[in-house]
Amino acid sequence: xxxxxxxxxxxxxxxxxxxxxxxxxxxxxxxxxxxxxxxxxxxxxxxxxxxxxxxxxxxxxxxxxxxxxxxxxxxxxxxxxxxxxxxxxxxxxxxxxxxxxxxxxxxxxxxxxxxxxxxxxxxxxxxxxxxxxxxxxxxxxxxxxxxxxxxxxxxxxxxxxxxxxxxxxxxxxxxxxxxxxxxxxxxxxxxxxxxxxxxxxxxxxxxxxxxxxxxxxxxxxxxxxxxxxxxxxxxxxxxxxxxxxxxxxxxxxxxxxxxxxxxxxxxxxxxxxxxxxxxxxxxxxxxxxxxxxxxxxxxxxxxxxxxxxxxxxxxxxxxxxxxxxxxxxxxxxxxxxxxxxxxxxxxxxxxxxxxxxxxxxxxxxxxxxxxxxxxx
Length: 376
Known about the structure:
CATH architecture of the largest domain: 3-Layer(aba) Sandwich
Distance between the termini: 20 Å
Organism: Thalassotalea fonticola
Structural class: alpha/beta
GO molecular function, one term: transaminase activity
InterPro entries: Aminotransferase_I/II_large, Kynurenine-oxoglutarate_AT, PyrdxlP-dep_Trfase, PyrdxlP-dep_Trfase_major, PyrdxlP-dep_Trfase_small
Strand content: 5-15%
Low-confidence stretches: none
CATH class of the largest domain: Alpha Beta
Keywords: Aminotransferase, Pyridoxal phosphate, Transferase
Largest sheet: 7 strands, mixed
Protein name: Methionine aminotransferase
Shape: globular
């Protein structure tokens, strides 16, 4: 869709990347590291100073009520990866064996299923329905069988903007303990929750974390998606197995960026805590600008995505509508159907007319796009 947007000079609200720049402090620090010659391999697991700063951030964000002895140990529980997608891949390869089954929730990030299948496993898809996209945990339990190895969750959720509640995490923990399962928790939008809602990280639940990989992204947090910097937090035994695979995937990740991010976390931690209000303002700008359009606006509780129902505008399916919107109208959006498994897409096309917009853009871009969309 970004290629199509460029070809047709459309305003690009499709692919999920920020239009605004990386913080100046972070750019200064990465340039400083490069100019000081810190350009060689880092330790495979990550620079110790970065691992320590991540653990401190996690403790501030999620573990303030835990005993000191339970505090996450950066050197033993965190691994730096070349993006969150690598962390997801390695976590899946660590867990999934031939003929294992993994439960995922559609619409889902499109890297999950290929990684599971290449590990010899099989996905069991559970569809989430508009407008709330909440998980039916009774259906999850009915789906669990002797082959079920793991459940992948994503909160805040791409592409829907929904988030999991404390009740969701408690129910998940009960199922994991009851059926001896593992969890991969994709939390790359963890710092972007709105309207005072709390992100319920797996890191808040010590018993659940014992059987979990938690994946995060610096690219999302610091507006530097092209740096491909992520990390995975896991208990000691799972981290040990994770690292055995990670060393043969990328070995180590871009050293100057690790140095810069460690300093950012240490000296500019307010960036992380202010991210929710920053993106809530962006969300509200777009929602208010679309208030008099013919779109139905679905709730966005987190991420930097907003869903629109276009039922009142067109009978086209979501792929066709997004192509038309880009080529003829001049605004690029993402269809939701590709986030569902192939078998579900026909049913999805018949019953849903929903597209995704990215609001990680400058206000002028959002106003310009909304003005065009309001004319439909």
